[in-house]
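S1.2 Input.
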Amino acid sequence: MDILLIAGLWLDGSAWDDVVPELTALGHRPVPLTLPGQGAGSAAATLDDQLAAVLAAVDAAPGKPLVVGHSAAATLAWLAADARPEKVAKVALIGGFPAADGRTYADHFAIEDGTMPFPGWDPFEGADTADLDQQTRDRIASAAVPVPEAVAKGIVRLSDERRFDVPVVVVCPEFTAAQAKEWIGAGDSPELARATDLEYVDIDSGHWPMATRPRELARVLADAAAS
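S1.3 Output.
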């Protein structure tokens, strides 16, 4: 199966470099995406531009792909399910939950000169970064690409209720499956609360398992694809 890999804020397709060979060895075709404004195209890219790149990859897949969204890109994966409910086999969300219709995509940090630069590690201290050694922190930070303001502040638009029938697996890194179930049950993720086929998988990692647990993450994604 084609497995489309969308990394979160500040990351390009190289974030999946350690996961790709593992997925290939497990018999899948991983397709890491480098999004407009985050490693490809103009720094003036918009959220619509990023979604268009994701949909182009969905449309190019020979069958129905598994669409994987990490962190903020959980919303991009869900937008793909909304735009192509008949084409997306399943959505896997790693450490993130999709924004609801009408909400901003991910304007969580300061905008400087039209972009949202990587803010350093201080905002993420704790469970997010507990398994990141200094070398890995340096590698991620050095590769970080400022997110265009028009992406971070883009408005999420969802329109096709068939998205709720696309199977979803919530991959739980710095939080547990039990916590994710509680949050969704409490209404913290209105979109996932309406999903008809929802499963949860724990992975023992911080927020960036593609960097710290690539083999384990590949197995989780391969299992999701197989089911």
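S1.4 Remarks. The chain has a mean pLDDT of 96.
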